[in-house]
Amino acid sequence: MDKRKHRICKSVWAVCAALLLLPAPVRVQAQGASHSVTSDGITVTIETDKEEYQSGEEIQYSITVENGRDKWDISASKFTYSNTEGLLPAGEEDLPDSLPEIPSGESFTLSGILVGDAELFPAAGGLNAGVMAGAAAAVVLILGLVAFLIFKGKKKGSKGSGGGKKGTEAAALLLAAVMLSQTLSGSAAGSADTVTIRPYVTLTYAGQEVTIRAVMELKMKQQLLVVEPEDRKVYKKITCHDPSIFKDFDGTYYILGSFLTGGSTQNLYDWTSLDAQIQAGFSQEVRDQVKAWNEDENADGWNGYLWAPDVIYNPHMEKYCMYLSANGDNWKSNIVLLTADNITGPYEYGGSIVYGGFDAETYGQTDAPRVLGEDQIPERYVINGIANKKWGDMWPNCIDPCVFFDDEGNLWMSYGSWSGGIFMLELDEESGLRDYSVTYENNEHSDAYFGTKIAGGMYVSGEASYIQKIGDYYYLFISYGNLEAAGGYNVRVFRSERPDGDYVDLLGNSSFYDSYVFNYNQSVGVRLMGGYKWRNFNVGQVAQGHNSAFVDDDGRAYMVFHTRTTDGTEGHTVKVHQLFATKEGWLVAAPYQTTGEALKPEGLSTAEVAGDYEIILHELDIDHRNLEAKQTQFITLTEDGRITGEYEGTWELEEGTSYISLHFNGQEYSGVALPMQIEYTTIETITFTAVGLSDQVTLWGSRSR
Hints:
Elements: H1 3-20, E1 34-39, E2 42-48, E3 52-53, E4 58-67, E5 72-74, E6 77-78, E7 80-83, E8 87-89, E9 98-99, E10 107-116, H2 129-157, H3 163-181, E11 194-197, E12 200-205, E13 208-222, E14 244-247, E15 253-257, E16 261-265, E17 271-273, H4 275-279, H5 284-290, E18 306-314, E19 319-326, E20 334-340, E21 348-355, H6 368-372, H7 380-383, H8 391-394, E22 402-405, E23 411-416, E24 422-427, E25 446-447, E26 451-455, E27 463-470, E28 473-480, E29 490-496, E30 526-527, E31 532-533, E32 541-551, E33 557-565, E34 572-581, E35 587-589, H9 606-609, E36 611-617, E37 630-631, E38 633-637, E39 642-645, E40 649-653, E41 659-664, E42 667-677, E43 684-692, E44 698-703
Parallel strand pairs: 3-12, 31-37
Antiparallel strand pairs: 1-2, 2-4, 4-10, 5-13, 6-9, 7-13, 8-10, 11-13, 12-13, 14-15, 15-16, 16-17, 18-19, 19-20, 20-21, 22-23, 23-24, 24-26, 25-26, 27-28, 28-29, 29-30, 32-33, 33-34, 34-35, 36-38, 36-44, 38-39, 39-40, 40-41, 41-42, 42-43, 43-44
Helix pairs in contact: 1-2, 1-3, 2-3
């Protein structure tokens, strides 16, 4: 025999030997077969009373599910058997497939009985006859294949190619690998609230190797934080869409919102509704004056088309000035000024600031001829006009005003929504109306009538602009997404040293969009929060948006917004969270609703901050359509500066300040640490809020009880 044939034969006999010597299933216990699979802290074990059974003999088995996942319960569920290989339940109830709720730290065991199908497992043959017969058949198959390969290799070898050697050895090794792979199996982990696990056990029945397999899709439910009745805190909530905050001279805080709703509070968390009082402040004459420009066929009631008012006190006029969106179909909207001697009215009509949705016929009904000095409508408003439905390609929907004085006493108004973007106009401090002495250029980010463009454009989502000076910067807040619960509403922040921009985010991204993108989950603008659920919340909070912001007399800054929940409705309430500037000057929001908390002037010590924490990482990729709300994960901040738990890294405090930095997940998170009351409780704990310096993803932490 030549050397080449000798090597082939050695390979063949090696494969045959491997097949004949395949190990039996691993024997975990002397009396039965057992196998465990673990995923995400959940362990499932299938055990049988024996490892080897005669034909017709009953297999008594058990499945034990152990919940080792801290603070997560397994919900009651059913599972399926993916393979029993000819084994049938001995009786109607001998193939159990239901699990009860299994709390964290507990386990549950169910038992069943299987018996082999007599047609598939005849009584003849020795204990391992099936295995031996299968192995013998495999050897015959291999020998036949080898004979073919030798013959083929001999023919190729006559050409001096060497292909016979490589082909034969590869075939033998491949077949061995295929045979051995049949003994392998595993499990897969699902998402944070679903664990997919595939337990199995292998045994011998009537001389044949069989496997019992199951597939379990375990729905996980995070345990609620137990709060004793005496520690609970109830807030008096109100409904107010698009709330704009104003603090009056007597210290009372007011909000006004769409449809002329609103409320008042003394502490920013217990609210009293003022809807009826505010709406009563509009006489029929004023209602008619406001609606003179608009055509809205879908408005519900006389106030159904009146959106997102903003109120300031103008010391030059000695009046409360309400800037109100009067929305209309086909962009036929405008922003009007109303004045009063009291914030709740009655209000008088003061005039229109800016008009949208005009055409050649209605152009003269606006102040555009006065502003532009042209009696006929300029061509650009026709090319991108309402007749061809291209108005929004360039021009704004004139809604959602934000009016403010800058440090020099100049009066500004930002406005706009989606479509053409967010624009800015300078107002006349003496009249509260447009300053007709100010002119604007015509270019990509400016228009002679609509003013300076500061954000958005090209139908990219973005509305509810709000500008507030905090510290050294003017911060621009914009809401991305749709306002519905499943709409992905979320607040983004940019900053500038000037009130009219340019505005950029932490990563240097501009607030402009000059081409269309779907930006709901995009990393442009620092997102203050996404959908989330602390363990003491019965439902998650989602679609937070259309905020206002202010700096109180003590220098603390706050954001006011409406939020929806994951309860399946469109109900919404007002919330107020304190805002903080990081060491780098970027805004982050407190993890909980405000109740009067404050940064400690001297900061916190390492010993005060160290401990076990629940964290919410507000990752950008969130399934808002299915009301995803990020749930808490668990880490420990050790006194020696380490982070352990679900993430590993380091952390540190800046001595004498409230600044904290955390390093994990490949990011550096910069923020502040402070004591706060856990929301809906009187329990005080240490919290932190931070933002990733290289991905601008926000992070909240609350020390666990």
